[in-house]
Amino acid sequence: MTATVSFTIDSPLGPRTASVAYERKGDGEPLLLLHGIGHHLQAWHPVTDILAAEYEVIAVDLPGFGVSEPLPEGVPYDLGTVVPALGALCSALGVERPHVVGNSLGGLLALEMGRSNLVRSVTALSPAGFWTEAERRYAFATLRAMRLGALTLPRPTLERLARSATGRAALTGTIYARPARRSPEAVVAETLALREAPGFEQTLAAGRSVRFTADVPGLPVTIAWGARDRLLLPRQGVRAKHTLPGARLVRLPGCGHVPMNDDPALVSRVVMDTVRATTQARN
Q: Is the pTM of this model over 0.85?
């Protein structure tokens, strides 16, 4: 069941109220899941039950995405605002320093939360921020094209396309290596989420100058990259490893940019290995 929580965030305009939708499941150490730009918390559904068998899993719709409200008028969607807001979200949920797993934009946010000492461990799946300028322009142009398609495609056409494997590949082949595995209902829902995301343009604009250039010392970090990622190319994972020399770099064979649906068991194992490294370090 999706619930909503409201909390106060700091912003350049002063304190403001944000509201975020989330799903919470399982028991154990808390595990926060952060999706990518234009997506929604349902992106994690292929792995949620696996992870919830051992952890308390909290998947959120980032502000301005899914069914979460946009940030208040005038509040920027930059890292300096969104990362502390996620810390405030954790406090509102009664969660202290969760483990965090993020994909794409969510991976970048997860790493920034690690730098801010807001989390116990970080698993970043194809995180943003390790691109060259040419790679960033390519990724942003691809995202804008996907958004334009979502905005212009009539819903009856979208639903008809999603019923066939070929249609699902046309709609989501950029982010999934195995789009036929995605259910028609999920493809329709995530295309509508991309269409209706009020935070998309401002988040993309805020990302133009983003580069992740600092280490995240003192906690377990895993960078995992889909070998068939067509949006953020896998060579960016090597760049990430140079930036974070203490991180574990994992290749995800057969996976695309959003790997949770391509290989749920593999992604879950990578996450659990990272969380267990925290436990081992404490012992």
A: yes
